[in-house]
Amino acid sequence: MSPKKRTIVILIADDDAEDRMLVRDALEENRLTNEIQFVENGEELVDYLHNRGKFTDKAKFPTPGLILLDLNMPKKDGREALKEIKADEHLRVIPVVVLTTSKAEEDILRTYDLGVSSFITKPVTFAALVDVMKTLTKYWFEIVELPKP
């Protein structure tokens, strides 16, 4: 395993505790050793990225190399958070992958228009989620070159 692979932090923004656990388990099932951080809504996501509030410790909450973003969250939804991220010159380089239950064409078009890197509809079964995470991690951590966080 290359050292590059271990240094990339994955930040998962999802308000559903069960979905967070399933994504974490699916990543672990693929023997992914990356550090995984979680936030529960768009406000926390933006605070994390700016190291504000409870996320001020940069060593504990490092800049992620990849964000997995749910669209439907309380306080500030994924669409609003995505818009803020892509409007920020320092944050816009972080790849954002939407991972949501939405299949709405409007969501797909709007998030790509806002600068999302990929749009994935959450699979229904855990086995399918493991497959999606395997493909996603292979692509983002073995195939593409990511900017340094």
TrEMBL record:
State the UniProt keywords alphabetically: Phosphoprotein
List each copy of the Response regulatory domain by range. Answer: 9-137
Q: Which Gene3D superfamilies match?
A: 3.40.50.2300
One Pfam entry for this protein is Response_reg
The source's domain of life comes to Bacteria
What organism is this sequence from?
Answer: Rufibacter sediminis
> Keyword Phosphoprotein: yes or no?
yes
Q: Which positions carry 4-aspartylphosphate?
A: 70
Q: What is this protein called?
A: Response regulator
